[in-house]
Protein 1
Amino acid sequence: GEDVEQSLFLSVREGDSSVINCTYTDSSSTYLYWYKQEPGAGLQLLTYIFSNMDMKQDQRLTVLLNKKDKHLSLRIADTQTGDSAIYFCAETLGGATNKLIFGTGTLLAVQP
Amino acid sequence: EADIYQTPRYLVIGTGKKITLECSQTMGHDKMYWYQQDPGMELHLIHYSYGVNSTEKGDLSSESTVSRIRTEHFPLTLESARPSHTSQYLCASSEAGNTIYFGEGSWLTVV
């Protein structure tokens, strides 16, 4: 079945780079997403990558996709205290439903 | 910027009460979704809709019901709330094959 896994916690110092990792099991994924959730808030789409791409860069965010290993990562350059949040990896299998399968989320704590 | 709105944002309600969580989107998206997220846990799909008059159950069984009478509106109803329904409920919408956008979420506490 479909499964998305993430490590639960990451702590970095302000100004350092953060790398959040995600593995998924379904090779038929069409899109893979990173969402950010701040305390008490909904999900904010950060970025996404189509399954035929290896890398996508958007300002401080870099997404790397290794389809062979079914591994997705999100790198945040120059991490700021405002980046502290839970980051969810998600995949969509496409088709009529277009539903998302989420990971458990990684709590990123940025130390000043 | 996605325009999808949920009300109420926070609700504390007694056991046995009927509640409706509202979700509206102004983007004309055909597909809408409800996800449930317990604190610190994964999100799970509980309902989705392909369009008007279409509703389907998601992966996680839920005692809630939904309706889709208008494209922009996808309310979720609990006929008799219980403490086990305490959770965050997230509404989302998308166009076919496109990104899914989420509302801010409704935090429900049943006491």
Protein 2
Amino acid sequence: GAVVSQHPSWVICKSGTSVKIECRSLDFQATTMFWYRQFPKQSLMLMATSNEGSKATYEQGVEKDKFLINHASLTLSTLTVTSAHPEDSSFYICSAHRGRYEQYFGPGTRLTVT
Amino acid sequence: AQSVTQPDIHITVSEGASLELRCNYSYGATPYLFWYVQSPGQGLQLLLKYFSGDTLVQGIKGFEAEFKRSQSSFNLRKPSVHWSDAAEYFCAVGATSGTYKYIFGTGTRLKVLA
């Protein structure tokens, strides 16, 4: 149990376009999901906390207008990278919270902006 | 402020040798502690966690970790490393204030020699 999926696993987009990444908890409901960004050979940087039915809470320094987060249901959160630029290229990972301080992570989405 | 330190960026061990990955945390109360493993291009898999009780925690894949309050440490150990253990290992602490956020260490990259 406690499986989290992400789609797509890899996406290439052109500079200036927007791309949406989905995060789904497949076998449990998650009122809270998290979005992370990971640069090569570095740790995970928390971008935002996604709460079902309310606005996301962004970490300091994260542009909320560039990284739009929607938590439309108890099993789905989406991250939309708007007007993507090459510097947005990264590995994006989501996690879903369940129970006491337990997070289950998705496999990640590699975004390449050309 | 809470923090997690993984002093070793890279560790190389021979297959069959024992392994210890270090993790030190800064936290006022009893922390929630986690070890995750990330294989190349993959999301994070939970190896083990400590919330309370027995300070020696058993996890998956033959890993264990010991919580030492006096040393503010939660080191990960394995008695005999397999080549498939080569990966990135992250220590994390559950943040306070009920946000369920994690604070991740910078990670330790493990290389296993045949």
Protein 3
Amino acid sequence: NAGVMQNPRHLVRRRGQEARLRCSPMKGHSHVYWYRQLPEEGLKFMVYLQKENIIDESGMPKERFSAEFPKEGPSILRIQQVVRGDSAAYFCASSPRDRGTDTQYFGPGTRLTVL
Amino acid sequence: QQQVKQSPQSLIVQKGGISIINCAYENTAFDYFPWYQQFPGKGPALLIAIRPDVSEKKEGRFTISFNKSAKQFSLHIMDSQPGDSATYFCAARDRYSSASKIIFGSGTRLSIRP
């Protein structure tokens, strides 16, 4: 059973470009979480999605950031018009159910660098 | 109130010694307290977790001590080994959160000296 997969592992963008980060949850998991980690800091919650639904996006910046988890395919975190402050590691986690289990399994992350 | 405060920021321990990392919280709605281990360039991995109805949980060399009245919990790594060198995050989950989102501490960078 493959773990949470994220790609790309490293992404370099110039200011103003768009960044698309993909996350494939573990098999059988229908709940996806996105977290952001700035250098030397802990992870900060961004958004929680179930298939075709955004459940909680309280940690997402109001502008330029969006997320989706379609019926088919991976979850996508999209950052439009990137700025240098968006440089961070973005982690995806998945779990099989909402409150039935506590464990979230993390992927290896995508390290975004904005030049 | 959603914060989890973690200390120390960094820690150096001799091989074979005991590593202790402390965390404190304010939100009494937190009902699940995991610890994550993260190696450079990797995602966090669940190490051990505890619920507030238990005062201690031990798994191998790793022990969580939980003090509900003080709203504090700590991770003890016994017989610390060089392979334990990593960043450790305490965390908590709010039972009333619709997202089951995890609130992370700021992390402790642990180095075990051979």
